[in-house]
Amino acid sequence: MKAIFIAFDQAYYERIVNLLEKSNCRGFTAWEQVQGRGSVNGEPHYGSHAWPSMASSILTMVEDHRVDPLLDTLHAMDLDTPKLGLRAFVWSIEKTI
What we know:
Blueprint lengths: L1 E8 L3 H10 L5 E7 L20 E8 L1 H17 L5 E7 L5
Antiparallel strand pairs: 1-3, 1-4, 2-3
């Protein structure tokens, strides 16, 4: 089992939730308003007058075989609209209850 943390521009929210649904990734936790800035060349998402856009994030736990197809689709979304910003990070899950 893997944990995938996805940080993205709010414009992606519905697309990512739909992607999780279509990928049979049922459970997730979402934070609709988070602030941040990309580590490479992303625009800041601060919700301020100067940088008004906001980001969102989702944490989902998925079976190992679902990780690569999900990351491939997320990466394609990011390549299509690089100015929006989207990143995903994967961790191994050792135990669940």
